[in-house]
Amino acid sequence: MFTTKSFIKKNKIGNFLKNVREHYIRDDISCGVPNCTKCKAEASSFLSETHINKCSLYNFNHFVILDTNIILDQMDVLEEPVISNVIILHTVYKEVKNRSLPIYKRLNAILDNPSRHFYVFINDHHQDTFIPEEDSILINDHNDRCIRAATSWYIKHLPANHFVLITDDNKNRQLAIAGQIPACTIAEYVKHLENKSLLEDKLSRKDFHTESKGKEIFPPHLSTAQLLNGIKQGILHQGTFRASKDNFLEGFINVEGFTDPVLVQGRSGLNRAVDGDIVAIEIFKKEQWVSPSEIILEDDGVSEEQIEDVEEKEKVLKNTTVQDSEIKPTGKVVGIIRRKWKQYCGILQGNSDGVYQIFVPANRSIPKVRIETRQADFLKTQKLIVTIDAWPRHSRYPHGHFVRALGRIGSQDTENEVVLLEHDVPHSQFSEEVLSCLPKLPWIITEEDEKRRVDLRDIDICSVDPPGCTDIDDALHCRPIKDGKLEVGVHIADVSHFIRPGTAIDLEAASRATTVYLVGKRIDMVPELLSSNLCSLRGGEERFAFSCVWEMDQNANILKTRFHKSIIRSRRAMTYEEAQITIDDKTQTDSIAESLRNLNMLAKILKRRRRENGALVLASTEVKILMDSETMEPLDVEVKKMYETNSMVEEFMLLANISVAEKILDDFPDCAMLRRHPTPPATNFDPLVKAGRHLGFDIQIDCGKNLAESLDNAVKADNPYLNTMLRMLATRCMLQAVYFPSGTLQKEDFYHYGLAVPLYTHFTSPIRRYADIIVHRLLAVTCAADSTYPDLLDKQKSSELCQNLNYRNRMAQYAGRASVAFNTHLFFKGKLNDEQGYILYVRKNALQILIPKYGLECTMYLVKKGETSIFEYDEETITQKAGDVVFHTFDPVLIRLKLDSSNIQHEKFTVQLVEPHIPGFSVSPLAELQEGMNEEGAKPVNERKRKSEETKKNKKNKK
């Protein structure tokens, strides 16, 4: 049977249409309980006859039925195996899906696990439990009524069994008890379980100890209605809050209509906003605007109650923010539109006692969190995951709960896990469903494959990659053809042949979006069989490729371009260094050597032409960490060495990407996946322009070409590293390059600022970037090598995909940097060294120093807490002066570097000045101290490397 409901709805053009909704009712839906004789047994029911739920609130075994909010708020508790034989009503299941997709996915993971004994009962289609909606009843009340009705039906349906409803909704619980339904809160239920301490720690407490409020520290938030009304009237503005990493009392909000982010400061300004939250702000009158603080402020409070410490720091902050030419739009947070809280990694603050503990997140942008735990002694040795539940006005810190321990603090495996979790990197093992999509071994190229592809196995193709690279995406060739012309080919692994649209492996790759590279570890986007074997263009092995082949003259002018799927056999897989040696060694005259020389010659022309067009050459501190192969400890940290061959490969990858972008846009003007680099707003360049001005350089920023020329001219003979630092500063002024579907923007917005090209995409790395797989599919359609499919041409779905790709790529970059930072810290533990550095920024209370040898940036504080500074800060010239010594941006300095591990969570380098010498502030050079040891007993910087070599030598001798 079915029921119908009809209603009238007005459409967009003003017509009224009658809608009829049918709802089918059945009498054959199983209750899921194994020993039920009234229902037909259902194979998908995992409920157990033998499992016993032991809760001392009830003196009988029972099945548990959950309210919607229990699932939404208490999933960390529900994931513990002690809670089993749980019935999820379909009413609840649907509501969870509508309200939180992440929680819905976690619930499904439990439902799919037979050992957990969870079952979904389709109550809203069962003839005895279906309750029709009534217009006069709120949807929440209707759902509660459905939950109570289904629980009552179970009690009557199986009188020999017992059922308990768990709900934190007071009204729902009281009505249930009045209707003879056993009901309790989740806190009551957990408190009476065996082994309750772990579960109690995991309880989400949204009304956490509100009875002991104390004084109110923050102003109240406006109601939702007030926020929406204020935004509608233009009194309030909406934006995403971003907390400062350098100053815990400062944050910024990007608001539509303002070029600069709006500055918020102090407790009342930030008003309980957490990094990532979507907030409503009130912007002050222009005369109240101030400049961002130039000082670095850390929250070193040791307890919840020390609000006086914050008040002192607020006074410092107020005294260092000025109203001058650098003022920014300033305002305050008046309400939270949407919380973006997630799980955070970190440690417990070591000096807190009792049940209430302070959790310190690894991410400096996140405030400390107050949690309740009964296992503090153990957890203080562990890296933890904690989630935020609420932030009451009376509490200095948000309140949250413990989720799980990751492992011992300082363990390399634990720290890698923290890096991945903190940056939301999917890193679980590939599922059986994904692995089942892989081709079976041995994999061979068939006659049918050969008919569909261009056979290039007779061409001398080679790849050039970093040492140890196993996921080889690209290979190159160059050979002379008629009339002195050259044929140049870029051959890219044909990953899209193995990953078909809509399959499990395709969905997984789309979700991961990119391969993530950590020190000594790689998190693949696709399973290893593809990434390091069948798709990797290894030397001497036949592989499928997608080829972009140009006909060029000797001046690198493109005469003809063609694209096709191919079969290649790379002659050699070379490193950048090996390729450089081959080019430089004139005695090598084989086809590979000649090919590389021609490629290098053409690449230089292409690069010169790009730079003439305004392409930027930027710089960053990319370092390589050398690891001990046995202990996996870092032996050395060094800046990556670059060869001409790095630039050679880069030029042809850029050219291939540009050529492919032009091709797919011609054939798919609305859904081509492209990559744009937006032009930065002029204000982004303020630090660069100011630094250049103080050095006597006029940095022009009106267009990319003038900026490139300005950077080329900014050279000083007495400071060879100055130009590199200016380029690093320029890099930090840039906006992030992003993927987008061509149909969502105007053509003038396609421009790639950094490369100075009107069109660009990613085609050359499909093993490690999902965007390239989409581009391959588009290009395959244009070449008649494959067919299209609906999602490929859907602008909306492409746009949603691009959002995920941009997010995952950004997180992968941050994760890689965090991994390098951790291993750099490991390398410097117990060591002391004097290093050449350069001043990157002059702050009001510190200098930020760059150490090029290790790619490190460190902060040298100019005054200790409670002491009077001997330095004078000049805002006009942005300098620090002590006696005759004046520090400017980019000045060289010699500094003493040591890792301070007193704060295990946020280890940092302590920096002391060696030269120039300032009496009472500088320290003596290490060279003047006893050789091999210093006054603190720390080891010289190369000690670990020497010891590792000695250990290996001794092992070899024993053998």
Short synopsis of the structure:
This protein has 959 residues and is an alpha+beta fold.
Structure description:
This protein is an alpha+beta fold. The chain folds into four domains: 29-201, 5'-nuclease (Rossmann fold), CATH 3.40.50.1010; 210-409, OB fold (Dihydrolipoamide Acetyltransferase, E2P) (Beta Barrel); 432-666 and 764-810, no CATH class; 829-946, Nucleic acid-binding proteins (OB fold (Dihydrolipoamide Acetyltransferase, E2P), Beta Barrel). The protein is built from 26 helices and 37 strands. The strands form ten sheets. Strands 18, 19, 20, 21, 24 and 25 form a six-stranded mixed beta sheet that branches. A five-stranded parallel beta sheet has the order 5-4-3-6-7. Keywords: Acetylation, Cytoplasm, Exonuclease, Exosome, Hydrolase, Magnesium, Manganese, Nuclease, Nucleus, Phosphoprotein, RNA-binding, rRNA processing. Belongs to the RNR ribonuclease family. Residues 453-785 form the RNB domain. Residues 932-959 are annotated as: Disordered.
Secondary structure topology:
Layout: E1 2-10, E2 16-24, E3 63-66, H1 68-73, H2 75-78, E4 86-89, H3 90-99, H4 101-111, E5 118-121, H5 139-157, E6 163-166, H6 170-178, E7 183-184, H7 186-191, H8 196-201, H9 224-233, E8 236-243, E9 250-255, E10 262-265, H10 266-270, E11 278-283, H11 307-320, E12 330-338, E13 343-348, E14 356-361, E15 369-372, H12 376-379, E16 382-390, E17 399-408, H13 412-422, H14 432-435, H15 447-452, E18 454-455, E19 461-465, E20 474-480, E21 486-493, H16 504-512, E22 516-518, E23 521-523, H17 528-534, E24 542-552, E25 558-575, H18 576-584, H19 591-612, E26 623-627, E27 634-639, H20 644-667, E28 673-676, H21 686-694, H22 704-713, H23 722-733, E29 738-741, H24 770-782, H25 795-828, E30 832-842, E31 846-851, E32 856-861, E33 872-874, E34 879-882, E35 885-887, E36 892-900, E37 908-915, H26 943-958
Helix pairs in contact: 3-4, 13-25, 19-20, 20-24, 21-23
